Fold:
Amino acid sequence: MTNTEKAIVWFEGLWLAAESYGNPNAARNASDEALRAQAARPAASDGWVKCRERMPEDERKVVISDGIKCLLASWNERDDVWDKGRNYVPRESVTHWISLPALPEEAE
Structure:
């Protein structure tokens, strides 16, 4: 797993830990489960995609950027915002997004 992927998992775990009121095992299990579920339906990465050209499928976790920083979020088509879990990022604040890679195969 790359450092970027580890950072994404770590941040996702922090959000889930806050939502599970300090239960680190529940947060870790939920984070692992969420990533495994998304990895089961990996998207072909086209590299960074301009938001004005195309948005990701609804509720799919992606990395978003305003050209300066990156965050993990999912696109909320109904509300026309990026969903970070506990708060939202306005559509116009994000310029690009990229799909998360599929998880690596487990070594036997």
Helices lie at 3-19, 24-39. The chain has a mean pLDDT of 75. The chain has one domain: 3-99. DSSP finds two helices and six strands in the chain.
